[in-house]
Amino acid sequence: MGVHIERRKVGGSPNSGCDVNFINYAIINWSFRSIGTVAPGCGIHADTAYCAFSANQIAGGPAESGLSVYIAVVNTLTGSSKIHRVNGDPFNDGFDHFFPWATTKADGSVYVGWYDDRNDPFNTKVEYFVGIRPMVGKTSQSRRLLVIPHLIPASASPGVASSEDYTQIASGPDGVVHAAWSDTRDGASMQIFSQAVTF
Q1: Which tens digits make up the pLDDT trace of 93-133?
Q2: Which of 76, 95, 73 lies closest to 25 in space, CA to CA?
Q3: Other C-beta atoms within 10 Å of 133: how many?
Q4: Structural domain tally of the chain?
Q5: Range of 35's domain?
Q6: Model pTM?
Q7: Strand (E) positions, the chain?
Q8: What distances in angstroms separate CA 124 from CA 65, 67, 81, 102, 116, one per listed residue?
Q9: What CATH code is carried by the domain that includes residue 33?
């Protein structure tokens, strides 16, 4: 599945673009719908939009077996943009990072949340991760990760995987970032959980 990110000047024609390639998950256990991880989840601060998405390949560069989380940083006035890889584990390590969403705080810091399977040696469960870019202008190398440690089964019961297709992360006027995701920690059903992100 190919996706084209097109950059436009406000009220004008495209001035450049970037091809993003979604091939597939590395782990065969995941039955999640792919469209949920390709579609970007965005936050905006002043004149800059931050859109998180998952992909196997960016702009014709090297492809990896698993999905990484990327963030497109777009100046909404000029159309200029940059793309940064968010998850900090080694490139092409065979793990998947998917269903990301981005939000920003008033100080310009950017938070991205996503599902991540790097900590399960059997590749049947995922955790919810949160990463941070401390302020506008810093590279994505300046990040910290909060790992919400409950492992989420790939599919709790037949047909339930679609209910895990999206997560959300948002900040309010109080400056607190809240993450929301689905998991099956009660062992019986899919539930929605939320946690304040304090770093």
Answers
A1: 999 998 899 999 988 889 999 989 888 888 777 888 999 88
A2: 95
A3: 25
A4: 1
A5: 2-197
A6: 0.82
A7: 2-8, 14-21, 41-45, 48-55, 57-58, 68-75, 81-85, 97-104, 110-116, 125-133, 145-153, 168-171, 177-183, 191-197
A8: 17, 16, 36, 25, 11
A9: 2.120.10.10
